[in-house]
Amino acid sequence: MGGCRGQLTPLDDRHTILKLIDDATAAGARLSAVCTVLEVSPRTVQRWQCHQNEPAQRKSAAQQRLPENKLSEKERDKIITICNQKQFANMSPNQIVPTLADQGAYILLFAQHLRGFVNFAISL
Q1: Separation between Cα atoms, residue 23 and residue 86, nearest integer Å
Q2: Which of 82, 84, 76, 89 minimizes the C-alpha distance to 119?
Q3: What is the domain count for the chain?
């Protein structure tokens, strides 16, 4: 039931396994014997019991966080406008950024510019 070593066990499965272990140990079974049957290490069970609510909390916190260097809508629109100009129509971001730098226009760092370009291309 526990799966292969090193694989993530889904939260629902963890709760089911912990419930089965609690029931079996309450009936008098040893933890090591139950873990052997369920193919889960006793150390893993201890870790799950200590941190029963943390994985869901950590995951939701990570999903709510936005990267600090995320492009704003204004920056993204500016990149799209520049890339759609006639003089840049047949250029890649690798060519657009140095061309703009030669003209003295430093819009964004290259990585940010490329990310904005790729995000725009994907959304088409």
Answers
A1: 71
A2: 76
A3: 2
